From TrEMBL:
Entries under SUPFAM superfamilies matching the protein: Actin-like ATPase domain
Protein's organism: Salimicrobium halophilum
Stated name of the protein: fructokinase
Classification via InterPro entries: ATPase_NBD, Carb_Metab_Reg_Kinase/Isom, ROK, ROK_cs
Cofactor (UniProt): Mg(2+)
GO molecular-function term, one example from the UniProt record: fructokinase activity
UniProt entry keywords in alphabetical sequence: ATP-binding, Carbohydrate metabolism, Kinase, Magnesium, Metal-binding, Nucleotide-binding, Transferase, Zinc
Catalytic reaction(s) noted: D-fructose + ATP = D-fructose 6-phosphate + ADP + H(+)
Amino acid sequence: MKLGAIEAGGTKFVLAIGDDQGELFEKEVIPTEHPDVTMPKVISFFEGKGIERLGVGSFGPIDINKESNSYGSLQKTPKTEWIDYPLGKELKNELGVPVIIDTDVNVAAMSEAKWGNAADVDSCLYITVGTGIGAGAYIGGQTLKGLSHPEMGHILVRRHKNDEYEGGCPYHGDCLEGMAAGPHIEKRWGKPAIELTEDEKVWEMEAYYLAQALVNYIYIVSPERIVMGGGVMKQEQLFPLIRKYVLEMLNGYVSSPFLTEETIDSYIVPPGLTDEAGVKGALYLAME
Ligand code: ADP
Ligand code: ZN
């Protein structure tokens, strides 16, 4: 069966055709511009290719409740041209195939659990630390959703004792995303994160915020693996700092063989799948 897959990101759309064995035949990457510019390119990529279903892992916030009238519509996204854009409906109407939509991070969690660095366990949480911060989870054979999708990037965090940055989330000021996403590292320190590699205090503070989030996710979601991706996590020195803080903050409260000095390195890990995680996950969504 021929299936379509889209990883709809804030900066780029990855489009692919594959099959129900997870094999990709064709792929194209286009920039995320105004929907009037991006969507015709998306439609023309898939048109006439004979796909039977289409899976989409999208940036958000987006309605992923299948019962809802606005299933597949974007919501109050910072990409303002896309606010209320009915992505799912447009794709379905234009291509005439069923469209299954979930969040980019839920799809990444599922992908890591199927084929990546969480393939040996049953549950996985995926967090991306990039332009924004978001997390998704795959547990009990499903991605995590309910009322809406989780918004784990916007949890409140305790301020670092040396941090005077006021926080930059337009909705919450000093939530996790407002304190620790890439653009806020840049605003706090006056340089892009990538140019701050050598500055230890930058990463110690970043790890302090991210570790608090992971500790909360461990308490609430109880995943058997945490995969951390996104541009900021390319700073590999963050991993040991985050692991150290997580153990310190948990302070032995959660008893699990995954959460010891010896095992934490294989509990909090980078992604196993690189560029294709998003589209492969979207392809898997299309199979369901
Ligand atoms: P997006 O979140 O838009 O999909 P990314 O995950 O690449 O894209 O995140 C972009 C953010 O990550 C920017 O704020 C950028 O400064 C930061 N970033 C990208 N690469 C690196 C790097 N190697 N080291 C540190 N920060 C990075
Ligand atoms: Zn926020």
